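Weekly modeling sync, notes
Attendees: S.R. (lead), two postdocs, one rotation student

Agenda item 3: backlog of single-chain predictions. S.R. asked that every request posted to the team notebook include the full sequence so nobody has to chase files. The rotation student volunteered to paste the first one in as an example of the format we agreed on. Action items at the bottom.

Example entry:
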Amino acid sequence: MSFITTDRVADGTVALISMDDGKANALSKQAIADLIAAIDEAEADPAIVAAVIAGREGKFSGGFDLNVMRGGDFGAVVDLVADGGDLVRHAYMSGLPIVAACTGHALAAGALLLLGCDVRVGATGDYKIGVNEVAIGMVLPDWAMTICRERLSKRHLQRGVATARVTNAEDAIDVGFVDIAVPMEDVVERAIAEAASLSNLDRGAYAKTMTQFRGDVAQTMADQTQADRTAI
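Predicted structure, as returned to the notebook:
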């Protein structure tokens, strides 16, 4: 059963894509497929000017489904992680601006999803944001390295990736995971306002600009996820 829902907000101009499984908002194959489908549905609606991807209070996403990641099936792990790369790339290259409402913890694949979004609104407070793979005995896949190098501050790459440093939302602004930090109760509302403010953008021009601006990085990510799948 999907925990991804979509509502039309801001007078029907913004697609609010919400994740809420009541737990960690783990990114399973189904959740990833549903998020991609929700982005596609928003792109297909000419009334939508931007989309917001929001978590539940206290949690944006804790990363990939641990049942798969710790299940002992190497092929299933590689496949899920490659799906995650497809999701991040899908958001990154969307024909619509994507705003993240980071409503709490965003770790591992949850933090990588933030890097695929255009504008990121984070919640102030004791919430952790970052790619903590090295600390839990994992290595970031090549596609994740690519998006980290592209979106994170060069000053923070060593600490943020190699030494798995996690931060709160305020500090994550300087690192590059977050653009705006507001109190928890204001995160979704602010993200919707940021999305609605992009109504002045021409959709066709935006999509073409994203192809020129991000196309090379997106193609590299696509090649890397394909290589991972081929290696299974």
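Discussion: group reviewed the output briefly. The two ends are 28 Å apart (CA to CA).
Action items: rotation student to repeat for the remaining queue; S.R. to check formatting next week.
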